[in-house]
Design brief:
Length: about 260
Amino acid sequence: MGRLDGKVAIVTGAGQGAGRGIALAMAKEGAAIVIAEINQATGGSTATEIAGLGLGGKAYAALCDVTRKADIDNVVAETISRFGAIDILVNNAQQFMMPTRLEETGEDVWESCHTSGPLAHFRLMQGCFPHMKAKGGKIINLASGAALRGDKYLSAYAAAKGAVIALSKTAANEWAKYKINVNVICPMVVSEAMKASIGTPHDFYTPLVTGCPLGRGGDAETDIGRCAVFLASPDADYITACVLNVDGGAADLSPLDLAKAGFLS
């Protein structure tokens, strides 16, 4: 018997990285998963992977560009049509930015980060609300330690993630009376793209892992996914407006450690 048996979850950007890890972890706990993914190939791959778990897991890959409201509306409608409910929403998809000095960051980068992040989260939360209002629900938004630390050269991304945190706390406050819990995970995930950057001018892996007190990056499923399962489960019914740093301690590094990690050098 799984902790999420009978629940229906929408997970954005679940074709890879943290989204995939969360989708797999929730599926293994009994949830039906709608994978809202702009990349049809990776979204379909995650759905196939869930179906192949041998646990009777249900998964559907829905084409979704989270910067398009029409796509978001379609995902919500398709979820209700196929599964009849929305119990869990995980807002994971977010466009990143290449490190750029603040004074050199273009408005197009700013708009990209905010449209794919807080605006998309806002739209999905609004879209799911009518289906959670009567019986409650769990919303998990992914932010970043970049917003808490003020990481250098990531102004648009850090600001977008800061907006996600503020949005989440406001929603938690307003929707608590409907038994809708809204929480935030700030993860540090080791992705294949991060590993591939090792030794390049854009090596994110080495400074993050070097600066992490636990000495490793997080696994998308076993570290991030399991925390998401907890927040989506009845075990977290009394937790809302929480910002959970699932990052091996990176968000609370001392200035000395941050300097070693390359953030404050």
